[in-house]
Amino acid sequence: MPTIVRFLTTLVVLAALVGAAMFYLANFVTPRDREMSSRIPASDLDPVPIVRPPPPAPVEPPPDEDGADEAVPDE
User: Fold this and answer.
1) Considering the entire predicted model, what is its pTM?
2) What is the DSSP string of 3-71?
């Protein structure tokens, strides 16, 4: 049991140190403002052509199962 307590205590202390470091960095360190520029190759600026998808094929309605739409021959 003492080894588990010692292990958990070590983990809690390490987590507290990491938390304190994060708090310090977030609240007391101010980033330096400076200009930044980067070169972009001309090939990245060329527009990419967009191809429209073809229209969907027409869908025929399914035939009725009772046959009501079928033509009845004249007798």
Assistant:
1) 0.43
2) HHHHHHHHHHHHHHHHHHHHHHHHHH--PPP--------HHHHSPPP-PPPPPPPP-PPPPPSS-TTSP
